[in-house]
Write a structure and sequence with these properties.
The protein is α+β, with helices and mostly antiparallel strands. It has eight helices and seven strands; from the N terminus they run αααββαβββαααββα. The protein starts with a helix and ends with a helix.
């Protein structure tokens, strides 16, 4: 007699009694009811289409976002698409098509650092997991992850980094072009009256102690336009260094020394 038979006999029962009293195995549970089954869209509500079609409509409406903002500081000058510009563009369009974009997870790392001016800064690097929900309540089959980093002297580094991660999501997930003219789209032969300066010529001017900090910033802008920032030259110690690194190093040295 097995263990089950012994236990049943001790209780004055048989296995047939236990099997008879046991509840029947539950059948497969029916599917959960559709929360949108009885929903009737109003006049101002988005079309009830799957999330991938709604997102495609968002992309069609956004079209492009140009680099209309300018950063000019520390010898660096460039155009960019800021967080506010991107969110202000996507916000009304996602609302129109019933798209919700929610952060469902944030991983953050922090470190303390110091700015060039000596200000103590807090740096945050975040990895945000996003979920895109369509007007019918369905979602993309995968969660999307983007990263962002930011510096702040107070308590805003995390919020700034998350905003950057959102900008990356919208621009990358939306394949949002700038429609700026490709710098390689046209080519003009330079005349003899305006010869291109050699990298060594810029090096000599950067190292010249009479070159002002203002001129060093201007040189950085010129090198950027000429695509010579990564040109390598031998510096004052005979080591190879890019013009960009050389210019920034000399600028910082003269700023620390109180140069004009």
């Amino acid at each position: 007699m097995g263990l089950r038979e012994n236990a049943a006999a001790a209780a004055g029962r048989t296995l047939d009694d236990e099997q008879h009293d046991s509840p029947a195995a539950p059948e497969d549970a029916p599917p959960a009811p559709d929360p949108m089954a009885d929903y009737e869209p109003g006049d101002d509500d988005p079309d009830m289409v799957p999330v991938h079609l709604a997102w495609l409509r968002v992309r069609k409406d956004v079209r492009a976002i140009g680099k209309g903002e300018l950063y000019n500081g520390g010898g660096t000058r460039f155009n960019f698409r800021g967080v506010d510009t991107v969110v202000n563009t996507f916000g009304p369009v996602t609302l129109k098509h019933g798209i919700n974009i929610l952060p469902v997870g944030v991983e953050a790392e922090y470190r303390d650092t110091t700015s060039k001016g000596g200000t103590k800064m807090h740096e945050a690097t975040v990895r945000v997991t996003w979920q895109i929900i369509g007007p019918m309540g369905d979602t993309f089959p995968m969660l999307l992850k983007t990263q962002g980093e930011a510096l702040d002297s107070a308590d805003k580094a995390t919020a700034k980094a998350q905003s950057v991660a959102l900008r990356v999501l919208l621009l990358t997930g939306g394949l949002t072009p700038t429609h700026d003219k490709d710098p390689d789209a046209s080519y003009a032969e330079r005349g003899n009256e305006a010869p291109v300066r050699l990298a060594e010529s810029y090096r000599d001017e950067i190292l010249n102690k009479k070159t002002s900090q203002g001129r060093l910033q201007q040189i950085g802008y010129e090198l950027g336009n000429l695509r010579m920032l990564n040109s390598k030259v031998k510096n004052e110690t005979g080591e190879w260094e890019t013009l960009d690194d050389l210019g920034q190093r000399i600028y910082k040295e003269r700023a620390a020394g109180g140069g004009a």
